[in-house]
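Troubleshooting: if your tokenizer reports a length mismatch, compare your output against this known-good record of 403 residues.
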Amino acid sequence: MGIAVQASFTERHRRWVMLSALLVTFGAVALVLDRPKGGVEAWLALPLFAAGAGLFVWGVWPHRKEVSAFGEPTLAVRLLGFLTWDARLTKFFPVAGAALIAADLAYNFLVSATPDFLTEDILVLLLAGVFLGYGMVPPRYGRERDFVLLFFMILNGILVAPLLVSRLVTHNLDASVDAYSWVALAPETGAILFLLGIPNAVHAVPGLTAPGLTFTPQHLSVPATLVITTSCSGIYSFGIFASAFASFILTEYTKPDRKLWAFLGLGVVAAYVANVFRMVVIVLVGYYTDTPDTDLQNMLVAHSYAGWFIFLGWTALFWGLLFRFMPLESRAEAAEPSAKEIPEEPEIRGICAICEMSLSPTLVATRCQCGTYLHQACLVTTGRCPRCGRGSRAVAIRATKST
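Known-good structure output:
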């Protein structure tokens, strides 16, 4: 299979290539966040990161040129335009990135009880890096650039901002966001376990702010307590999915219709349900399989890896259903403007609008309904006209040999 054929295949199935890249990359992130203490499993994240990056690059490389001037702007373009005062503030993004780095370092070394770089620090520094590199990304990859920016902005809003607010309100620099476990995770997990016939109790743990869930395994006579701290609560996986899904909706769609928001709400609810299901599975493994010989090791293994597999499984299922059943008319790239909606522009007869190379008598050329001239091979590779957004099947073939 030649490179041109592979590029054409990737363009036709770009959504599935990007889904694979997201799953592999998020799997690596989840493995780093949920790895066992002192384990070496985090090193497995390196090849996953490399594979995800490779799929991402392969997915966006043959991408068509961005045609924001002729098509309706996406929700992301509108939102970022509002936040940046019609892009007037984007030139200050590098300053914002440098300020975030300085603020995080100052907080760690001057205010925080420990200068160690934790998960929240990494998220802040990644957002700072996006701000620093935002202006270096070519405009043709504007959609991917906006996705990354929105992803890290929303992720910091979900995981970092509540932590800072909690520490400010409680005047405790070591406080964590354990309110999520107390309100939305531990009671629900305990209630489901009761329905399954497993007695348990949710209670405070001396010396900790996180809730504990105590139950007695079937083959043990001593009760076991599972402490649901912030790092064990699954909130990181929830934040990753919610941020990625919201960013996808904003960068791929143009109209905020009811079905779109309903799907977004369903995605957030599905993420929450999957997280509660993960905690139930962990307790069930410990309750039914642990013995005096295993000493709760089975539950610890499930704690380390169950969330990883559940996260990847339901994410793949949900995104697959999204790609399959979301109405095509709601997608930004499915809206193809008619010839009357395209602004008048002088035709450039001697240049291909895709590769910007001269047309040659030896190469078959094509003229779109909007008047744009294209190499037929370029059109097959990109799949659509860069001016009006029409797909290759909708382009009227008028020219034979270019002259």
